[in-house]
Amino acid sequence: MKVLNRYATATWRGAGLDGKGTLTTHSGALKDQPYSTHTRFVSEDGKAGTNPEELIAAAHAGCFAMALSFALAGAGHPPDELQVGAALHAETPDIDWTITSVKLTLRAKVPGMGREQFDQICAAVKAGCPVSKVLNAEITLDATLL
Question: Which pTM value belongs to this model?
């Protein structure tokens, strides 16, 4: 059995609306990356910092792209390029937010791949990607084979 352990830290100072924090990942990809209530709910341009939902969307897009690359190569059709977007939707009836859906969009350059096989592989990867499996949300995929 192989085991994969990853970790990140969050430091938060202050209370709720006025508080601010930083996120750091073990790899160093994020180092004291700012986040706050403002960067989560007001400043959606990302210039002031990040937010948990944006990081989940990035993780989902990255996980799906990598898993799909392995699956396509395993089927004898290694991709030239996979462009994956993940649009995460969260809503709240009051104060408790819930991630309700993620729409994955894919533009794939896969030489020699037929549409039916491509669709089958994409559907399996969408359901089986580790990030898809951890999310309690509707996940849809709009896939374009170029």
Answer: 0.91
